[in-house]
């Protein structure tokens, strides 16, 4: 294997020679990898939200205002005895009002217009498995004193559906961009091969192996890919610091992607960058390698 | 050292370049391959370094059947066969020293080997004082010496020369032939394709004459041609 400084010199020379084309290849790789990293982070965020939803799925059994004490006790007993139920918590009208005031503390007009009497009492039921909601609802159907049964999972269903579409879209665009960047990297390598066709001819003549001939070109491709990857990672870090981290203090109830998620994205970015650039470089040099 | 057994080469456009050629060249021989343009001389050279594969027949170089050589072994064949061409094929942006060193560098020879062998071989070809010159600062004869040095620096068993004097004036050609003769006397087998009848006549070595892809004459201590 030849000396590393030789390969490095050849690579730098190629960059000088085809500056603009190399720039185009690197920026396409950058955009593709940035989108890829973004998609990875969105995926992680969706998982985080899904996990917190799973942990927090609650069935609210709202009670009618005219429910009697015995009916309430009866319902409580029934819920507690259900095998699918983890915990049952009774929320009185007063407690519901307190909760309401806490949630909307910054909207004073809203709070002023709602009297404690307007909010129903309820059982807050935690399920062992959030998918058991339908079974619970069916069993409670027709019991006296129940005004309404709701689970809060469907709120998140919409959110998950939207993010899934967003994720597929971003991944799709990233995929197309990755192919484009492989093609552009292949193009810069092809130009480098063309500029050095004389050397390649002599190398083949004196018995250099395909590996020796090919390595500088593959290295050029990988360096281009890695520069794009580094730029993409930098952009993601900036995005995180500028947009996600400030949110952390404002919205406490939604979990946010953190540094370890960024690390996972970085691993993906660099892995894909190497794969894409090696593929591009390999493709571009294949034609010149047949002996 | 070199053996061709009923070798034919037909190109895609059904041009027959070689047609059932049998050749046997011993170690240390000096052989001229002569014949008119298109008679198959260059094809013969290209077959010997597996630049091309024969359509039919077997080719043995240094004991190996190169017609059936797997592609990844081809570089190792070429390390045993030096090649020199009419157009020198030097790298213009490298010095004389670098051009020769390049041939060793790309086959992974260590630095200290390159440092000792390159000046030595350039001394042998008479360019010991022009190591740092660039090809365009040299005469044609000197450039061909560099190319011979590059072909020979790895001590190949065989040296192939395709019209090495084709671009040179007669006096310079004689110098190049003296150099090839010296290389031959170190035990290296030399095969030279040429048009140059004066040189062939003067050297009085084995002559293989090709016409239309067939061997029409194979003569020890021959001359260029009866009618030439």
Give the overall pLDDT of chain B as a whole number: 92
What percentage of amino acids of chain B are in beta strands? 25-35%
The class by helix and strand makeup of chain B works out as alpha/beta
Largest sheet of chain A: 4 strands, antiparallel
Alpha carbon gap, first and last residue of chain B: 30 Å
Radius of gyration of chain A: 30 Å
Runs of chain B in which pLDDT lies below 50 for 5 or more consecutive residues are: none
Can you describe what's shown?
The complex is a heterodimer of chains A (291) and B (228). Chain A is of the alpha+beta class. Chain A is 73% helix and 9% strand. Chain A has helices at residues 4-17, 19-56, 69-81, 93-103, 108-113, 133-140, 153-195, 197-205, 210-250, 259-286, and strands at 58-63, 85-91, 122-127, 146-151. In chain A, strands 2-3-1-4 form a four-stranded antiparallel β-sheet. Chain A is elongated, with a radius of gyration of 30 Å. Chain B is α/β, with parallel strands linked by helices. Chain B has seven helices and ten strands. Chain B has a six-stranded mixed β-sheet with strand order 6-7-8-3-9-10, with helices on both faces. A four-stranded antiparallel β-sheet of chain B has the order 2-1-4-5, with helices on one face. In chain B, a hairpin with a 2-residue loop joins strand 4 (56-61) and strand 5 (64-65). The two termini of chain B are 30 Å apart. The interface between A and B is medium-sized, with 19 and 24 residues.
Write a compact overview of the structure shown:
The complex is a heterodimer of chains A (about 290) and B (about 230). With about 290 residues, chain A is α+β, with helices and mostly antiparallel strands.
